[in-house]
Each structure stands twice: as structure tokens, then as C-alpha cells.
Amino acid sequence: MSAIELRSLTKVYPGGVTALDSLDLVVPDGEFFALLGPSGCGKTTLLRTIAGLETATSGAVVLGGRDVTGVQPGARDLAMVFQDYALFPHMDVTDNIGYPLRIKKVAKATRGAKAREVGDRLGLGHLMDRRPGQLSGGQQQRVALARVMATQAQAFLFDEPLSNLDARLRLEARTFLKKLQRELGVTTVFVTHDQAEALAMADRMAVMEAGHIRQIGTPAEVFQRPANTFVASFIGSTPMNLLDGHVRGDTLEVAGHPVAVPSSAAGLLTDGEKIVYGVRPEYMSYSADPVDGAFAGKVAIVENLGASHLVTLELGSALVQALVPEGREPAPGHTGYALPRADRSLAYRDG
Ligand code: ADP
Ligand code: MG
């Protein structure tokens, strides 16, 4: 088990695409680290470069204090799980799990015993003689995990391993994988484009955009204080309200309303400055009666999310959304008031 360190890592593909742009990252020993970003931002390239399947254009990959930048993938002692699991269709579960040990020239009997031990642990004990084509998607995913566990690698690299599972299985696999990583304590980099998955699973996470890391922090830090409007709009199950505004004396004017300056921006803004005001629908309290400092508007849309409703208020051309607990939701057409929490609202200069 080892820390993973990337120093000014750059990857330019032939043809000129810069997939990683001078990226620095330290994942401490034993951490579950999630790498989140939209399609094409460089997540797979980052994992493959750590694994040695891609050669870095410049910069260094350091594993457990050892510079492995020029080292062959097989000698890096890492285990990677791909989106499609990459199981061998002609091998049974035992041989699939034991395959990396075969590469390491471990004797057949030892391989079989290890495969059974890990298979049992992952609830595959009764399926050891089946081939991948005779397994469900969730079972195949467990075989891929078991194969990784059997290798006793220094670190695990996961490239969107849950994205081929249906919604319910994905939730189960998420909990299961997280628990397993806790027990094994192996340093893990988990790539996903699903923000909920990153928030739920990670000890710490990074948000990537176009070859750059835009923010690193705990899920709570990234959720509560996104570093810029890109991160703000990427994180959250309901989109964050991002509204143009400007500083007017001691308050902000946002969508024509006077709003308290966010605590995090207190003393940092100058009079007249243009800003983008951000607050999550979760951090708005909704009322049918007028409230000081609240956004007032016509209720345009009410979306049922189960235990809560997402209420969209129309304020001229701007839209403001608030999450309202079940039973307190208004009917469309009424006037509603949404009061932002000053300690959970943000003011950005990068809009
Ligand atoms: P992600 O996994 O976040 O979707 P990738 O790492 O696959 O992103 O890709 C990052 C960028 O590098 C994209 O613009 C992609 O088109 C480009 N890219 C990926 N692989 C190659 C390759 N083998 N040759 C050229 N460009 C590539
Ligand atoms: Mg990818």
C-alpha cells in the first residue's frame, strides 16, 4: 500500500490534444480518492498514466516514494478495473480472478485457493465455475473487483467501474466497494463522471476540467464551498442557483433583490463590483409569506423529488430554485419567497 504522487504531470497526445496540463496531486496512503469530471476532461488518461499504460509527456509519477515514471506497467504493482471489466470470456470465474497471479507465475493450486477465498468474500462462492457470459452485470463487476483484490496491489485504480450497472445495483455496489476499500485500506483512485458517486464514496475528491484540477477537498468542502462556477454547477443533485449580481454598499443586488453578503465573501468585495451569486436550492428556506432578504417571485414549476419538491421561482428573466420539504410545497402561480442562508451562499468573481 502506497501513496500516489503526481508532479507537474503533462500528457499531450500525438495530434496535439493536451489531456493533462501540468497536474499536481498527492493521494496519501490508504485514501479513497475520487476523480470527478465531465467526459473528455482527462480522467482516463490520468489513470492510465499512473498505471504506465500511457507515457507522460513530462512530469513524474511517484508510488510509495519511488519514481516510476519510466517503469513498465507490470512492474508498478497497481491493479486497475475498467468500465467494461475486461473479463476473459473463455475463462471461468476462478481463472479470471486468478489471472494476475498466473502472470506472476504463482502455482495453480495456490491461485485457485486464493481465487476461492476472495470469491467467497465477495459472495461469488457458488459461481466459481461459470463463465462471464453466464453472470449478471453485477456479478461480473464483482469478479472484476475480486481479480483486483487477489493481486494485493499497492494501489487500486478504478475507471468508472459502476457505470454499466443499472441504478439500483450501482447504489449497492457503491456501498459494497466503499466498505471493501475500508477493510483493505488500499490507496484507491476512483474515476467517475457521477458527482453523487464521488460525494458518497470519497475521503477526498478532485474536480477536473480540460486537463486541470479545479478543486481538491473533502466531499463536504467541495459541496458546500465549490471553488468556482464550473465546480458549483457540476456538483449537487439539483443545480446550484448561479445569478448575476453586483455589490451595492453593504449588500448585494442579485436579480433585482437586495441580498446579504455571503459570510465567506465578507470584507473581500468592493462597491460596484460584478459578481456571480451562488446558493444551492438545499440552502434556501421557502415561505409563502414575505420575508426580509428573500427572493420573491412567481412559482413557475414545482417538481416532485419524493421527500422534497424543487420549486422554481420566476424573478423577471432570472430563475431561482428552492428545495421545499414534502407537504410545504406551493401550487404554481402563487407568489413565493426564498431566503438564502448567508453561511451557505457564495460570491464568485470568475463568472
Ligand atoms: P475522460 O476519461 O475524462 O472522458 P480521456 O482521458 O479519455 O477523458 O480523454 C481526454 C482527452 O484526450 C479527450 O480530448 C480525448 O479525446 C483525448 N484522447 C484520449 N485518448 C486519446 C488518444 N489515444 N489519442 C488522442 N487523443 C486522445
Ligand atoms: Mg474515461
Spans where pLDDT lies below 50 across 5 or more residues = none
Radius of gyration: 24 Å
Query: What does the overall shape look like?
Result: elongated
**Element order, helices and strands?**
EEEHEEEHHHEHEHEEHHEEEEEEEEEE
CATH overall fold name of the largest domain:
Rossmann fold
- By CATH, the architecture of the largest domain is named 3-Layer(aba) Sandwich
Count of domains: 2
Instruction: Please identify the structural class as seen in this structure.
Output: alpha+beta
Strand order of the largest sheet: 6-7-8-3-9-10
**What's the number of extended β-strand segments?**
20
Residue share in helices?
10-25%
Question: Would you mind describing this structure in some detail?
Answer:
- It contains eight helices and 20 strands.
- The chain is of the alpha+beta class.
- It folds into two domains: 4-234, P-loop containing nucleotide triphosphate hydrolases (Rossmann fold, 3-Layer(aba) Sandwich), CATH 3.40.50.300; 241-348, Beta Barrel (OB fold (Dihydrolipoamide Acetyltransferase, E2P)).
- α2 (93-103) packs parallel to α4 and α3 (108-121) crosses α4.
- The protein is elongated.
- The model has no long low-confidence stretch (mean pLDDT 93).
- Magnesium ion (MG) binds next to α1.
- Residues 4-235 form the ABC transporter domain.
- This is Sn-glycerol-3-phosphate ABC transporter ATP-binding protein UgpC.
- GO terms for molecular function: ATP binding.
- It comes from Nonomuraea longicatena.
- Keywords: ATP-binding, Cell membrane, Membrane, Nucleotide-binding, Translocase, Transport.
